[in-house]
Amino acid sequence: MSTHVICDFDGTITEEDNIIALMRRFAPPEWVELKDGVLNQTLSIREGVGQMFSLLPSNQQERYREFLQSTITLRAGFVEFLQETQSHGFRFDVVSGGMDFFVHPILEGHVAPEHIFCNHVDFSRETARVTWPYACDAHCSNDCGCCKPTIARQIVSPTDTLIVIGDSVTDFEIAKRADVVYARGQLISLCEAEGIRHVPFETFYDISAHMKGVNV
Predict the structure, then answer these.
(1) Per residue in 77-111, pLDDT tens?
(2) For the segment 12-70, what is each residue's pLDDT rounded down to a tens digit?
(3) Measured in whole angstroms, how far is the alpha carbon of residue 186 from the centre of its chain?
(4) Could you tell me how far CA 87 lies from the centroid of its own chain?
(5) What integer pLDDT is reported at residue 215 of this predicted model?
(6) Using an 8 Å Cβ cutoff, are 6 and 165 in contact?
(7) 85 C-beta neighbours (distance < 10 Å), count
(8) pLDDT averaged over the chain?
(9) In angstroms, what CA-CA distances link 169 with 10, 37, 43, 97?
């Protein structure tokens, strides 16, 4: 039996949710209602996020990338945590509802591309269009967009110890099947409401300290 870590990106590996930062900077006011709909679960993730990106003109693609690369901050302890997972022989995958045009550049040199699962944005039309290469399989009807449980069914062995690290509604479904959940932000309240055992964290140093204490 081995250990497999599935980690969110926006608001987890990074200090801020980068889609929210992008919308706040470039989108018209309509994005706020869509964001609220996703967070309170009246809109599916795929529907809400897809509509949010459709508000962005494609001809500003380079500005979006430059803005995010200049503002994104990795959460404290992430690089050291990655080194620890490697030294323990854990498999580490980033499974993110974020977009490839900023997730891959930020993780370059830290996580190999084959261990990154995220959405794709097509900038070939007048406005940005999200494509969903990891949509829900027949076992999930939540219209997740990037479906973390679906990906887990493909890459996590049933005998593995599954550790999930996340911060929001996009991590909730995968948290339900994890052996250990490290949560911050909205994911804490969702886990509390569902009775899912979890360990709150603010930095990856917190996670490392807890893992050492329980000998994961």
Answers:
(1) 999 999 999 999 999 999 999 999 999 999 999 99
(2) 999 999 999 999 999 999 999 999 998 888 999 899 999 999 999 999 999 999 999 89
(3) 13
(4) 24
(5) 59
(6) yes
(7) 18
(8) 94
(9) 12, 11, 12, 10
Q: What is the pLDDT of residue 111?
A: 97
Nearest to 21 by CA among 34, 13, 10, 33: 10
Separation of alpha carbons 158 and 149, rounded Å? 13
List the domains of the chain with CATH numbers: 3-214 (3.40.50.1000)
User: Which tokens is 146 given?
Assistant: 């990037």
Continuous segment of H or E residues that includes residue 183:
strand 180-183
Residue 5 is inside which H or E element, if any? Answer: strand 3-7
Is the C-alpha dihedral spanning 25, 27, 30, 31 positive or negative? negative
Residue 136 sits at φ, ψ, to 5 deg, of -65, 140
Place of tokens 């995968």: 174
CB atoms within 10 A of CB 40: 9
| pLDDT for the residue numbered 145 | 85
- Give the Cα separation of 171 and 55 in Å (integer): 25
- Interatomic CA distance for residues 113 and 102, integer angstroms: 13
Strands 161-166, 199-200: pairing is unpaired
Backbone angles phi, psi at 158, to 5 degrees: -60, -20
**pLDDT for the residue numbered 214:** 65
